[in-house]
Description:
The chain is α+β, with helices and mostly antiparallel strands. The chain is built from 3 helices and 11 strands, in the order ββββαβαββββββα.
Amino acid sequence: MIFSFSLETTAGSTVTTNGQTTASTLPGQTTLSTVSGQSTQSTTDTTTKKCDEMPAIDEQTARQITVSPTDLPESEKVSFQPISPNGVSFPSNETTPTITVNFGKPAEVQSVVLPRDKTPNANVEQFEVTFYSPDGQKINQQPVKSTVSPANDTKTPASLNSEDIPSDKPVSRIDIKIVNTTDDQSPKGVILDIKACTEISSSEFQTIYGIKQFFFLYINFL
């Protein structure tokens, strides 16, 4: 039996026409083919990508940031975004502020960097981070220290080593404490370049799985 059928899903399915049908699924899933009424099934061993890495600090998240010991107005907090041309500069008496980032949806953090070459007079030399799980518990009991940014090298920012980041655990909050600056002054030009992964939602997974099951039954019925 020869038929023509087309299917497209959010998982990136391919099209089947002219008597040959191929359903391409998420990596690591089943591929189905039908040629002249005969169906075959094969499985690949490719590892499934479970999240997309993206900047974690957008305007909405930036507005929800809290700063201690003295908080800032929301109009200033938006400058923590990595796209800000100026960043956030602290008063002269605030030399070691703590910046608390709350994620609206728990995410798997992949990197934390405080750049020095994106904003004027950026001077963060080193910071330390505490990660919190969605239930409010500390993931790391002791703060994790970043690398040190050399005073004369703005292209080498302070950042967390990848092995110090719980990248496989959902994080709902991050406390970033600036511990040193390159000129021993209060932090200036601070922007937060945080990359995180958001997981595929259960509804998205169920939609993809349902389409695959329907297609499998459809082919076998023919």
